[in-house]
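From the shared-data thread, chain only:
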Amino acid sequence: MIRLFFVFCGFIFAVVGGISMLAYLNLLITGYQFSMYLHFIVRSVEFYVFIIGVMMIVGAMMFPSKKQKRKK
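Structure, as tokens:
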């Protein structure tokens, strides 16, 4: 149950960060170069929210649950 909670929270964080990063793609239309866009994204909070969300999802999927019995 706790794994499902972390997957759900991670999904929310990843979606919020990803949508914000996609919205910032409009900076390219206003004359920013792609390198300037990347520099701006790396400094923004949304990028770190996205990374934390992805790490939460991967972490919840990688760790086994305690309900599984270990075979000897």
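The chain has four helices and no strands.
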